[in-house]
Amino acid sequence: MRRTLLAFLLATAVTSASANDQIAITTYETRNGSLIPGDSPIRYCSNPTNDTFKIESIDMYPNPCVIESYCGVKIWGTFTSNLTNPHISFMITTHFDDGRQGQMPGEDDFCKWLDVVQNDTSQCPPREGKATLSSTALLLGGWVPEANYTVDVRVTSDQGPVFHICADFEMKPKYEDGVELR
To answer: What sign does the CA torsion over 169, 174, 179, 182 have?
Structure first.
């Protein structure tokens, strides 16, 4: 369930440089934020200058994700310090065609939600250096309704902000009247 929500959050809501190399950051421009490089609709939700995870690229697969399919997200970047007590919080806002809206907030231990790989080894909490964060899940129709979504994901730790990303997207079913839409 947690992995399903995270893949949904990030996918429907990041390669390499040593910790001593210069790390490029996409400029944050507006409240809507700058798109982060990669194949996804994910953008910065706040200025990333002080983030302890410098995102280089985010891919979502497939893009866009569809209901009743596996959906994943992979984030590449560099941690600028070791993290202690990383924490994830999120808000999903669902916008239905008839004008109704729903919100689902949540928060938990970051290490329960994302696979973190550093130096070809799973490691959480993350340590200083380059890393790949990933999550893949099956988006079940009973859990994920067809609608437009706004997703806001914030990760923090004892060291301060880790990253804050957002996405706006539409979720559609994989099949309509027995015909595959993709």
So the answer is: positive
**Alpha carbon of 54 to those of 21, 25, 68, 78, 174: distances in Å?**
12, 7, 32, 5, 34
Total tally of structural domains belonging to the chain: 1
Q: What is the pTM of this model?
A: 0.78
- Pairing mode, strands 43-44 and 160-171: antiparallel
Q: Give the pLDDT means over successive 10-residue stretches in the chain (182 positions).
A: 45 28 33 81 93 96 87 95 94 90 93 93 95 90 85 94 93 74 59
Task: Provide the domain limits for residue 75.
Answer: 2-180
CATH at 39: 2.70.220.10
Q: 148's torsion region: left (phi>0), alpha (psi -120 to 50) or beta?
A: beta
Report whether 135 contacts 116 (CB < 8 A).
no
